[in-house]
Amino acid sequence: MRGDEQVQGGFVVLTTLEDVVPDDHPLRAIRALVDVALEQMRPALDALYAERGRPSVAPEYLLRAQLVQILYAIPSERRLCEQLRYNLLLRWFVGLPMDEPVFHPTTFTKNRDRLLTAEVAEAFFEAIHAQAAAHKLLSREHFSLDGTLLEAAASLKSLRPIEEKDDEAPPRPGGRNPEVDWRGERRSNATHRSTTDPEARLARKGNSQAAKLCYAGHSLTENRNGLIVGCELTEANGSCEREAGLRLLRRQRGRRKRGRMSIGADRGYDTRDFVAGVRELKITPHVAAKDRFSAIDRRTTRHDGYAVSQRRRKLVEEPFGWMKTIGGLYKLRHRGKAKASAVFTFACAAYNLVRLRTLLAEPASA
């Protein structure tokens, strides 16, 4: 016999978000690290707002929401706000009480120029880095360096000749997404620019791959636990990896004035200028040697540390894979180098948070 569905009326539940989230949930450890970082950033965040006027949405809410979007690969702010309305776990992480309404998606748009900046992102990254250093999880001697291409939020259809003005461009039929035939047309960064994101550049990783409008992301990781200790986003060109690599190494050397240091990298860094620049910083270049015309000789490759650096070098590639598959950087959502740089720095900090949660949960070795 089929039973009847019992429709239950509404009732009041006396509980808090703290009771809903399990004590052993991974987000609890990450939230604790984030709260410490935001507390350190409080004076800098206070300086971003006027003393008078209507109170705004707390910047801590928006920054935690930015992390939620990266950690859970939420594709847009509108979808993020939708999740915050019914997902109690994400609401707890952001810090929104149950009786407080979720802010509108345009809140991110209005606060983007204030909070989605390189200064705020770097301050947050450094606060997380300081916690990793306080727990003695960072290597002070051995590091790895690499770069990757991040596809810009622009289509190849937006490319126009540099000398062509907007009022001179011929109209293209097809509405918002017209058909464009550029067969036989030579396009390069010297002759064309994107009207959607003029700072993006045509680039490709290999000769067999298609060129896309991209930015270049660079990271410096330490070889003990694979944590990112330095990051930077630049224009994608042929020498950006080596130039950004030297800047990251210079900052790292500034943190440690003395002491032995080594840097592992792939063959793309095996150039005389880069190797000479690394040696000027008193850092040993453990760069993968080319078969011909290599700047690395037996003085470096004969030591056991060179082979160890080459084995540990894969640690620098793992954050890029995480950021593109989980962190939402497979294709950027924001246009312009400034916003893309801030998002990339936040993604690097998010990766460190995930790693720190795992490392701090591991039992201490005897």
Brief summary of the model shown:
Helices cover 42% and strands 13% of the residues. It has helices spanning 17-20, 26-46, 59-71, 77-86, 88-94, 106-115, 118-134, 240-255, 272-280, 298-301, 304-312, 317-325, 337-361; strands at 142-151, 159-161, 192-194, 201-203, 212-222, 228-235, 262-265, 284-287.
Structure description:
The chain is an alpha/beta fold. Helix content is 42%, strand content 13%. The protein has helices at 17-20, 26-46, 59-71, 77-86, 88-94, 106-115, 118-134, 240-255, 272-280, 298-301, 304-312, 317-325, 337-361; strands spanning 142-151, 159-161, 192-194, 201-203, 212-222, 228-235, 262-265, 284-287. Strands 1, 4, 5, 6, 7 and 8 form a 6-stranded mixed sheet that branches. It has a two-stranded antiparallel sheet with strand order 2-3. Helix 2 (26-46) packs across helix 7 (118-134) and helix 2 (26-46) packs across helix 13. The longest helix is centred in the C-terminal third of the chain and has 25 residues, at 337-361. The radius of gyration is 24 Å and the shape is globular. The N and C termini lie far apart (63 Å). The model has no long low-confidence stretch (mean pLDDT 88).
